[in-house]
């Protein structure tokens, strides 16, 4: 088997993977009371997946990834409120807007060190946050963009108060985009991207265009983050300045720390663990949940992720650099 065939074979589905996704889709039906948190998990998992593309597969350090989440959220919310309430059209608009922003911002990460990229990406997110705050007539300012009412999905499925339709919608979008991302990173093009991550000088020496690889992956990751933002605005009916906050990007980094970078299931696993721990611990001790979350992360790093997470159940070929 040549290298190309081997890469493509790693992107094929394994027998247990459809069972995992079917189980995720079954949760809102079996436990309707947990549909809202399932919806939240699917959205933040998509956001963590987008960050994993730039951090785990391209080695781009960023703390401003929330810029694309927020831009997608506000774009989808404004489109639904002023133009058309169709969810799929709004999702496409949110992704397109974030893609354009990602393409423009990709120029800022082509030069400089990791520290430079960290500051530049963070600065972009802060600029957008302040811009959304100042344009109060359009965005609602500090009060947020309220009154976003979505039409029925496919013209048939209304968004209910229990969140079942929202959960199925978000999981389906996550599944589609995750499948496309895995197919892409397991392709020969994805292999050259990881070569750039591991040694950009050697990659350039063998003819790989390093700036082009970084710009493309950053733009595609922005599109996925924009989709997560659009889902967030559509399923909550609200978009606020909080979507641009540093905490959003930091939480996504924590999810990848928990689940593992360079492995597309890592963002999903990290999102599940992070959101469930947040929900459980904050229910027990709302004031000190961050302490227990920090303690969990310390233990995770000291003991080792491989001993505590289900990643050890998966073949190494499916885990990448996890």
What is the β-strand count? 0
- Total DSSP helices: 15
Largest sheet descriptor: none
Instruction: State the helical fraction.
Output: 55-70%
Structural class: mainly alpha
The SSE order reads HHHHHHHHHHHHHHH
How far apart are the first and last residues' alpha carbons, in Å? 24 Å
Number of spatially distinct domains:
1
Principal-axis shape: globular
Weakly predicted, low-confidence segments: 311-322
Q: What would your notes on this structure say?
A:
The chain is an all-alpha fold. The chain has one domain (3-246). It has 15 helices and no strands. The two termini are 24 Å apart. The model is unreliable at 311-322 (pLDDT under 50).
Question: What is this structure's SSE topology?
Answer:
Elements: H1 3-10, H2 17-30, H3 35-55, H4 66-82, H5 87-105, H6 114-134, H7 136-139, H8 164-185, H9 188-198, H10 200-205, H11 210-236, H12 246-259, H13 264-284, H14 289-303, H15 305-308
Helix pairs in contact: 2-8, 3-8, 3-11, 3-12, 3-13, 4-5, 4-6, 4-11, 5-11, 8-11, 12-13, 13-14
């Amino acid at each position: 088997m040549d290298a190309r065939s081997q890469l493509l074979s790693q992107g094929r589905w394994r027998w247990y993977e459809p069972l995992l996704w079917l189980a995720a889709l079954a949760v809102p039906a079996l436990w309707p009371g947990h549909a809202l948190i399932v919806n939240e998990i699917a959205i933040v998992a998509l956001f963590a997946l987008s960050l994993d593309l730039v951090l785990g597969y391209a080695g781009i350090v960023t703390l401003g990834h929330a810029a694309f989440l927020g831009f997608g959220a506000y774009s989808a919310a404004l489109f639904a409120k002023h133009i058309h309430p169709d969810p799929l059209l709004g999702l496409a608009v949110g992704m397109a807007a974030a893609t354009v922003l990602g393409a423009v911002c990709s120029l800022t990460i082509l030069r400089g060190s990791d520290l430079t990229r960290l500051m530049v990406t963070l600065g972009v997110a802060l600029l957008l946050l302040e811009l959304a705050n100042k344009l109060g007539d359009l965005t609602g300012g500090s009060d947020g963009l309220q009154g976003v009412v979505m039409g029925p999905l496919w013209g048939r499925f209304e968004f209910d108060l229990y969140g079942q339709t929202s959960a199925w919608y978000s999981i389906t979008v996550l599944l589609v985009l995750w499948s496309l991302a895995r197919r892409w990173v397991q392709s020969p093009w994805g292999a050259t991207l990881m070569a750039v991550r591991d040694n950009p000088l050697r990659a350039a020496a063998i003819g790989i265009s390093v700036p082009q690889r970084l710009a493309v992956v950053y733009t595609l990751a922005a599109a996925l983050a924009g989709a997560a933002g659009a889902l967030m605005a559509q399923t909550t009916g609200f978009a606020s300045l909080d979507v641009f906050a540093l905490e959003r990007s930091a939480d996504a980094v924590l999810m990848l720390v928990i689940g593992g970078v360079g492995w597309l299931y890592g963002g999903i696993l990290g999102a599940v663990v992070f959101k469930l721990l947040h929900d459980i611990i904050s229910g027990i001790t709302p004031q000190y949940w961050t302490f227990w979350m920090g303690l969990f992360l310390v233990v995770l790093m000291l003991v080792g992720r491989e001993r505590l997470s289900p990643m050890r159940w998966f073949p190494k070929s499916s885990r990448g650099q996890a």
